[in-house]
Design goal:
By secondary structure, the chain is α/β, with parallel strands linked by helices. Helix content is 46%, strand content 16%.
């Protein structure tokens, strides 16, 4: 074989190797593992429970309503791929330290405590969220508040009023390590709210859960 033929063969082999590298590189790149997905573990706390009924108006007990709303919120979150930790799933008595231990021990990266407010003035009805830890909780609480657009029972075409977020030395808020908020969703002392919450369809409770979900979704979307 002449020198020219050998050069042609070597050149052909070199081109073949280069082409093989170009063709296999994308496949290898595609198999490279990406970053681990961000954690989305929410600790949902149904306020009160057991020997602590919370606000009571006739047959309506705050502890039952918070548990109902918490269960609905759990379903919404899990259907969207979130991991949900519940501080209680039944009518159990829990202190703030126990609730915080459940949230912290299960690696929650956000905590939402559900409550219903009450007043001696039956005309009052608004939403308000509270934070404990200035650095960790305030922005999270504001996000939950901003997303809450529950229809007012007095006028379904308008949103329920919202009071400004406020710092509150709640044991649960202070003892949890993750961003946390306590949401006073509606006033159980308001007769219009009582009528809606007593409805067997559970529409009001579902709407409350949807609005809390919207706030959590907005928070995680911004991370």
């Amino acid at each position: 074989m002449g020198a020219r033929s050998r050069r042609r063969i070597l050149f052909a082999l070199l081109v073949g190797c280069l082409l093989a590298g170009v063709l296999t590189a994308p496949a290898l790149a595609a198999k490279k593992p990406g970053p681990a997905p961000a954690s989305r573990t929410v600790c949902v706390d149904a306020g009160h429970g057991g020997t602590d009924p919370g606000a009571v108006y006739g047959d309506l007990k705050e502890k039952d309503l918070t548990l109902d709303i918490a269960g609905r919120l759990r379903t919404l979150l899990e259907n969207s791929g979130f991991t949900v930790v519940m501080t209680r799933t039944g009518d159990s008595t829990l202190g703030n330290t126990e609730r915080a231990t459940i949230c912290n021990g299960n690696g929650a990266d956000t905590v939402l405590s559900i409550h219903l407010n009450a007043s001696s003035d039956p005309t009052i009805d608004y939403f308000q969220a509270f934070y404990g830890k200035q650095t960790k909780d305030k922005a999270f609480t504001q996000t939950i508040q901003n997303a809450y657009k529950l229809a007012s029972p007095a006028d379904p075409n308008t949103d329920l009023p919202k009071a400004a977020i406020t710092q509150f030395a709640s044991g649960l808020l202070l003892k949890t390590t993750a961003p946390a908020t306590l949401a006073e969703t509606v006033f159980l002392s308001n007769p219009d709210e009582q009528s809606l919450l007593a409805d067997s369809t559970g529409t009001r409770q579902q709407d409350i859960a949807k609005n809390l979900y919207a706030g959590l979704a907005a928070w995680y979307a911004s991370r």
